[in-house]
Amino acid sequence: MKKLFKFGLGAAFAVAGLAAASIASAQTKEVVIGFQTDRTGPTANIGVPLGTGYNDYVALVNSKGGVEGYKVKVVEIDNEYKVPQGVEGYERQKKEGAVLIGLFGTPHTQALTARLTDDKIPGTSPGFGSAAAADGQRYPYLFPIAASYWSQMAGALQFAKTQLGGSLKGKKIAYIMYDNPAGKEPLPILEDVAKAEGFDFRVFAVPPPGVEMGAQILDLTQRYRPDFVVTHLFGRSPSVSVKELKRSGYPLRKVVAMVWGGAEADIDAAGGYAASEGYNTLQFAGVGGDFPVIREILNMYSSQGREPPKDMRSSVMYNRGVLIAATHIEAIRNAIKAKGGAAVTGEDVKKGFESISGFTLGGLVPPLKITPQDHEGGGWVKVYQVKGGSLQPVGDWFRAYPDILQKNIQADANRKS
């Protein structure tokens, strides 16, 4: 009888132990994301607020119970904007079980594209990387998820056309670019739109690090005298361009910067909002704090008795981090639902990205629709102008010259096939 009692007690403890383990397992289900940024390198002014926005959105999701019962674990790597660190970080994140990778940097994206495909792990490159990666058939595991440099150039030219009365025929457009591969990438779109619209253009290349461009601006304003200026600059150079153009008497309302030249830090470094009045910037995420998701994050900090991070003041880059995280979470959510709640793989998350449709996050995100054919999501942009001490939207989300963009995507495919 004692033996039977001991056996029964032992079995009961074993069952109870298994039940407890099962409950613990259910409570600790998690999905892992690899996220790279630059918190200490040359583009840390971008990477720090962007990374904070990313992690804050994930924290918000986890505070609500996670994604379909899964807590989200972010394995962040500071790649210092160095390719070896980015590649090594990717391998580390892969070993941690990451089912997708948030990439950071065009050279890093180029170095990791083939590995993503081989490992069947989707990676995102919002607003950078190869514009041809919009073609999901040729780049099955790379997702730009935001306007590429080609789409940004198309949007900038459409904005110039609108500002110049609806026609570019016979006009002169100046393109000030950072003299590196990223700066050169939009050139095919500039050339093709110039042919289609009948305008003249001239390229003004600024050598790295882009802190001296007095000669280029003098040539632009005194000799070329353009009707409109498109800039594509990084780091400290956007603020230098604003100061030099203003010093030369060129109206800033006739300037539009592509997406890496329009953050609050660029405006501050150019002398502040009053000095930058009229300056136009392209964005692929909403700017400022007047969005439901940003208010939710602020409420999360308040409920935890914490002060919100200072990085929220850099709303351009902070909000982009929120956008990236939100699209990652949406892809994972789609994947888990498609698997009936089971754990997902990178291949599942790829399909989850390709199922995103009508996603706007209360207006912070353009009307995103990603398909197996279009990994860019449409190439939407919005113009914000420095006006009255803040960045104010000029119109709504739009996209431009889709036929020219598609022609270049196909031409790139033909060259590399």
Describe the model.
- This protein folds into 2 domains: 30-147 and 288-379, Response regulator (Rossmann fold), CATH 3.40.50.2300; 150-283 and 383-416, 3-Layer(aba) Sandwich (Rossmann fold), CATH 3.40.50.
- Helices cover 46% and strands 17% of the residues.
- The chain has 14 helices and 14 strands.
- The strands form 3 sheets. Strands 7-6-8-9-10-13-14 form a 7-stranded mixed beta sheet, with helices on both faces. Strands 2-1-3-4-5 form a 5-stranded parallel beta sheet.
- Helix 2 crosses helix 11 (292-303) and helix 3 packs parallel to helix 4.
- The relative contact order is 0.14.
CATH class bucket of the largest domain: Alpha Beta
Strand content: 15-25%
In spatial order, strands of the major sheet run 7-6-8-9-10-13-14
CATH architecture of the largest domain: 3-Layer(aba) Sandwich
- Order of helices and strands, N to C? HEHEHEHEEHEHHEHEHEHEHHHEEEEH
Radius of gyration (CA) equals 24 Å
In CATH, the topology of the largest domain is named Rossmann fold
Q: Look at the helices and sheets and give the structural class.
A: alpha/beta
Q: What does the main sheet amount to?
A: 7 strands, mixed
Distance between the termini: 79 Å
Count of beta strands: 14
Number of helices: 14
Counted up, domains total 2
Give the low-pLDDT segments: 1-26
Helix content: 40-55%
Which superfamily, in CATH terms, is the homologous superfamily of the largest domain? Response regulator
